[in-house]
Amino acid sequence: MIDYLxxxxxxxxxxxxxxxxxxxxxxxxxxxxxxxIGPNGAGKTTLFDCIHGVYPPDEGEINFRxxxxxxxxxxxVARRGIARTYQTVRLFDGMTxxxxxxxGMHGRMRTGVIGALLRTWTSRREERRAIDFAxxxxxxxxxxxxDEQFPQVLPHAAQRRLEIVRALASAPSLLLLDExxxxxxxxETEEMINLIHRIRDEFGVTVxxxxxxxxxxxxxxxxxxxxxxxxxxADGRPQEVQANPRAIEAFLGSSPDLQFRL
Length: 262
Description:
- With 262 residues, the chain is α/β, with parallel strands linked by helices.
- The chain has two domains: 1-81 and 172-262, Rossmann fold (3-Layer(aba) Sandwich); 92-167, no CATH class.
- The chain has ten helices and ten strands.
- The strands form two sheets. The protein has a six-stranded mixed sheet, sandwiched between helices. A four-stranded antiparallel sheet has the order 2-1-4-5, covered by helices on one side.
């Protein structure tokens, strides 16, 4: 029996009469990499926003580990074990690379404000452990030699990797990645693929990602779902989706001269 970490049933989301999601069902097995693909405007990021508590769905269910996420704020969703990144990199001004990752651990810290202010033995020990783990994550992202730099001076690909490990610092069970390979070159794309594989394999994190780069989808996905005009038109293993006529139609329309490859 498949153990589904995330289950979505009949999800609907409307904006001023525009239906962005229409009766979407999705089953994401634990410890897998699951890709959402589809044309621009298909509803992929809106689906992420509904999962993460940015928008409440108008209808439908979102269950994570068997518990509903409907009505929860983004902070509450994060505490349940879901972290995310965005299409546009969002890093904090005035914080070093190391500090960016430490911020990601804030929700896991147990000492509290008083302990931190008094610099108790417990708070100092927790701080040391946090810094050690942050450095481990920076090494994972090949950023360990840049820990004292400010992220604004880093190349775009390095900023994307930093945002991913900052999200990973919160120790999520599910990581939502919104176009992690956007704007990076071929070599950097390979590094991103390796990073995401290691997040699943070494940290046991389930990854749900939106991606337009089909080379990334091909290399990384255990499962793929295709959205088109807010509807899921195909899902399954990559080779199954590649052969699905509705998936082909979503990407290529009726043109016989183009090819759709996963």
